[in-house]
UniProtKB/TrEMBL annotation:
Gene3D superfamilies, per database record: 3.40.47.10
Descriptive protein name: Protein containing 3-Oxoacyl-[acyl-carrier-protein (ACP)] synthase III domain protein
Organism: human gut metagenome
Keyword Endoplasmic reticulum: no
Domain Beta-ketoacyl-[acyl-carrier-protein] synthase III C-terminal per the UniProt entry, residue ranges: 2-59
Amino acid sequence: VKSLHAEPSKFYKNISRHGNTSAASIPIALHEMAESDLLRPGQTLACIGFGGGLTWGGNAADV
């Protein structure tokens, strides 16, 4: 949050409900956001994940 200079409310978090779901974290979050009507045309999403072996990856996509 600090590195991106963004408000915490801009981040979708579900770890308290599901724990660490590894490779399924981003698809689960996107599904929950869609079901909760949180995704809007024109939004830009940044998806960042961290995995085993200290690997990480990310992407940005428009809805």
